[in-house]
Amino acid sequence: MKSWHEFITMGGYAAYVWSSYGIALVIMLANAILPGRQQRRILKELRSRMHRREQSE
Amino acid sequence: MFVWFHRLASPPFFYRFAEKLAPWLAWLSLLVILAGLYGGLWLSPPDYQQGDGFRIIYVHVPSAWISMLAYMVMASAAAIGLIWRMKLAHAVSAAAAPLGASFTFLALVTGSLWGKPMWGTYWVWDARLTSELILLFLYLGYIALNHAFEDRRTGDRASAILAIVGAVNVPIIHFSVNWWNTLHQGPTVFFGPKAEMPPNMYIPLFIMMFGFMLFFAAFMLKRLQVEVLQRERNTAWVRELVGQS
């Protein structure tokens, strides 16, 4: 690449190149964020279940 | 070494190990992918036939590679789970499936976005594209079957059989461009006198493939932690873990 303009226009293929990378970003971000959130949710659920059990005893 | 592997197969040990290792792998994969992107999108020269359109390769090939790698992980773990009834093995399969499905989808979409300007069509029913689409259906079938039963163990066994039978598709995908006359291009020669790519084109590709592998490893560990928590929620070590945090 010689210039920012060339980089952004991708020699006329901008629509195809940048949508490919855009979709890749979305899918990889989702894969990076979701498992950690699910892990925290399960831990929270188990913690509140444990508290309830302790109170009823 | 063997003792260490044996300990890794114990859920509480694995869980703590993954908790430490996964963030390192994730950040490392980010660095490697950024380096690969810089090489692929900025430093490498345009292709003499495809111009800058060829740059889709840096996301398409690593995705397709992970789509097959994840399937091999899923099917081998399924076989280990069925034969040796190892606790963690079915969890490995279940963790690999959504990641594999994601990268298969990504390989199909980026391939389609590449096909449109180069072949003039988003889709064609050639052997490579069709077998990759079947791979996506195998992943989705695995996920559906795994969750279709009240008892998780029944789902694990049923979906494991599907994963193992479906493994026949992986070599078909790989060799499809040699076995059949496909619109999809054949394997690229990287080295030697017949090399089709200069080093500043293929080095970023190898960096991206390595980065995607690190990404897969990092979030495979993370998903496996979730699987382990769900499956072991009533055990003493999980209660202990919840009590500490």
Summary keywords:
heterodimer; A: about 55 residues; mainly alpha; 2 helices; B: about 240 residues; Four Helix Bundle (Hemerythrin (Met), subunit A); 9 helices
Structure description:
The complex is a heterodimer of chains A (57) and B (245). Chain A is an all-alpha fold and 57 residues long. Chain A has one domain. Chain A is 86% helix and 0% strand. Chain A has helices at residues 4-9, 14-56. Chain A is rod-shaped, with a radius of gyration of 23 Å. Chain B has a single domain (16-44, 52-244), classed as Four Helix Bundle (Hemerythrin (Met), subunit A), CATH 1.20.120. In chain B, helix 5 (127-146) packs antiparallel against helix 7 (169-179). The longest helix of chain B is centred in the N-terminal third of the chain and has 33 residues, at 11-43. Chain B starts with a helix and ends with a helix. Chain B is mainly α. Chain B is built from nine helices and no strands. The interface between A and B is medium-sized, with 28 and 40 residues.
Secondary-structure blueprint:
The complex is a heterodimer of chains A (57) and B (245).
Chain A: H1 4-9, H2 14-56
Chain B: H1 2-8, H2 11-43, H3 57-84, H4 87-119, H5 127-146, H6 152-166, H7 169-179, H8 199-231, H9 236-244
Greatest interface: A-B, 28 and 40 residues
Q: In the residues of chain A, how many domains can be counted? A: 1
Strand coverage percent of chain B? under 5%
Based on CA inertia axes, which overall geometry of chain A fits? rod-shaped
Give me the CATH fold name of chain B: Four Helix Bundle (Hemerythrin (Met), subunit A)
Summarize the structure.
Chain A is mostly helical.
